[in-house]
Amino acid sequence: MTSPIDPTEQHPSASPDPQPPIDSGAAPPKSGLDRFTSKQKLAGVLGILLVLALCACCGATGIGALVSNNDDKKSTKHAAEPPKSSVSIAEPGRLIGEGEVTGISAGDAIEVAMADGTRLVHISGTTAPVASSGQCWAEESRKFAEQNLSGKKVKLFISPGQTDPGKGAGIDAHAVLSDGTNYGVAALEAGAVRADINAKLPELLDKFTAAQKQASDAKRGLWGGPCNGSLTPPAPSAPAQPSTPPAAESQNSSPQSSSAPQQSAPSTKAPASGSGGGAVYYSNCAAAKAAGAAPLHIGQPGYRAALDRDHDGVACE
Q1: How far is the C-alpha of 284 from the C-alpha of 241, rounded, in Å?
Q2: Which fold is adopted by the domain 94-223?
Q3: Residue ranges per structural domain of the chain
Q4: What is this structure's pTM?
Q5: SS3 call for 164
Q6: What would the pLDDT profile of 105-141 be if each residue is shown by its tens digit?
Q7: What b-and-e string marks burial along 173-197, b requiring 16 or more CB atoms within 10 Å of the CB?
């Protein structure tokens, strides 16, 4: 009879695999970081800090350079772009109306028929030669205005700060044609007028002086001959005297000599007795008359008794 199994007794077939005994005094296995010595760790940390410091420095420099470049671009852009003006060649100021040019007084003065009446307009920015003062190019300046403005529609502009005196009053203004041409600038470019340094619109003064310089450099209009930029007309030159060719002169004198009676030159022979004395001697009365000396009175050169047939003291009567 078998004995009952003692629960405390381990059966060889049921017992687990035997485990090696654990030494409590042995060190646990080391991790990857624990394998480095303290000096190696310190060197690694310092290297990481150095790399971070370099990156931070480079980053700050790059950002600073980028910001600086952007600022430079902004300042350059602002410097290159002058403040915009509302005044232009085609719309030089405030529009006060439009009308038809019905009269030309001078190269810088026109009459414009507007809705509120006809107005005398001086072309702002220009000054034309004055005809009543005899200034050079005055008539040419007026004709230029006549050819380019007479009978045409124009818009009148004044300076934003200029006051319009109202209906029928004269005014200093810019005349702009329907195609946008500023007549003042066109007249300056053609040399028909001069730039007015006291122009009502100083914003356009540089454009006026540039247009005048263009005409002056090209010697157009009053900047060319005969004015050459001066308002004083040149003195008139004396007319040249026509010269007669010698051949023609001899031909003209030839018929006269053939048709005129032969004139006897006074003789220089010694006068005969009864002569009036002197060195003049006429062989006959015909010679005296041909010489214009007849009648000859006694005592006159060329008189002699032979020519005085009635012996009354007058020969060749």
Answers
A1: 43
A2: OB fold (Dihydrolipoamide Acetyltransferase, E2P) (2.40.50)
A3: 94-223, 263-315
A4: 0.49
A5: coil
A6: 999 999 999 998 999 999 998 999 999 999 999 999 9
A7: bbbbbeeebbbbbbbbbbbbbbbbe
